[in-house]
Design the sequence.
């Protein structure tokens, strides 16, 4: 444990995971939420100060080193910029923001302040994903020919009804931002940038609760010449079924699957075999639904390493921005394909 002081902005579900980890490896000094009961619950559990707004927290807690931003998607950029201006490092939950313009404003402020901006991309630490990244870095699969990304989860009516921001376009941004931005990040991190894409989206069964698609299909050509597909939905019946990525290369094929990109389902690699993977951690459990893998401790270990030992940021702001850029382009294509030119 070290003496780096953290504060959490936003006391929702994912903030509980942040607080749990921070309290074990550093000092959780303060929390804030516009809903007093939520801040009070965190304050009582973790014996830290509580505030009704980021403004009051930043004014009162001058010696905080790092702010962890866990507010709804549309507020990430504002709260990050406020924190950077106050001279704090920032850990920003996914998605980094819900527009490239917001991301760029965050990056400019980070550069001006000289403070570090960490983007939470905890699925990069899934053991089979880390192994696949190493394979690609070492070129063991040869030229990548194609890739298939599947995200088949369930988000029922209760999920949206219990939230005052999820499902709302201006606050949430879309299914690819809230549910599947981790998957888009991994696609960029593993395969590279996308050159061309075409996308289609529909809202089939969440029309009264969600202001955007609940199902989408994307076909893409990457800058490296590979082609690929993204198939995603939150209409998987009753439960999350699959989160997978399959990579086809000249010298190998690998599929990472399971519900949360946590299982090496199959492999066939010329002269090589992935062996001895450590067990994956369980998914984040939110009661009536589950989310991505709970590798947030790895995120915070990286934060501590960067701030105390000069380490390298595991997921930087530029990478966070690229994820948002790809999602923006997918949604732009969906809009164009709603009313294609005659």
Sequence:
């Amino acid at each position: 444990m070290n003496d780096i002081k953290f504060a959490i902005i936003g006391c929702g579900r994912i903030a509980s995971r942040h607080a749990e980890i921070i309290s074990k490896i550093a000092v959780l000094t303060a929390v804030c939420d516009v809903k007093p009961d939520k801040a009070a619950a965190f304050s009582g559990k973790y014996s830290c100060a509580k505030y009704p707004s980021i403004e009051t927290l930043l004014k009162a807690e001058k010696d905080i080193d790092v702010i962890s931003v866990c507010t709804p998607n549309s507020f990430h950029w504002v709260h990050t910029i406020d924190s950077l201006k106050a001279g704090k490092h920032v850990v920003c939950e996914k998605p980094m923001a819900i527009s490239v313009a917001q991301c760029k404003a965050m990056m400019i402020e980070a550069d001006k302040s000289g403070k570090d901006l960490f983007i939470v991309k905890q699925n990069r630490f899934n053991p089979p994903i880390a192994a696949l990244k190493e394979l690609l870095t070492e070129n063991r699969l040869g030229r990548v020919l194609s890739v298939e990304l599947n995200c088949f989860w369930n988000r029922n009516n209760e999920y949206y009804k219990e939230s005052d921001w999820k499902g709302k376009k201006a606050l949430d941004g879309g299914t690819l931002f809230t549910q599947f931005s981790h998957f888009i990040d991994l696609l960029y991190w593993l395969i590279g940038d996308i050159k061309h894409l075409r996308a289609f989206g529909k809202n089939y069964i969440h029309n009264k609760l969600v202001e955007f698609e609940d199902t989408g299909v994307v076909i893409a050509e990457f800058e490296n010449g590979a082609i690929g597909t993204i198939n995603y939905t939150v209409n998987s019946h009753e439960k999350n079924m699959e989160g997978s990525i399959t990579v086809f290369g000249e010298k190998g094929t690998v599929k990472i699957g399971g519900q949360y990109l946590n299982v090496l389902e199959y492999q066939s690699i010329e002269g090589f075999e992935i062996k001895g993977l450590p067990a994956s951690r369980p998914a984040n459990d939110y009661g009536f639904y589950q989310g991505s893998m709970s590798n947030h401790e790895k995120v915070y270990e990286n934060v501590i390493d960067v701030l105390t030992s000069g380490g390298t940021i595991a997921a930087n702001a530029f990478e966070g921005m690229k994820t948002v850029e790809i999602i923006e382009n997918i949604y732009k294509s969906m809009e164009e394909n709603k009313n294609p030119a005659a």
Observations:
- The CA atoms of residues 283 and 293 lie 4 Å apart.
- The chain has twelve helices and 15 strands.
- The first strand starts at residue 5 and ends at 9.
- The mean pLDDT is 95.
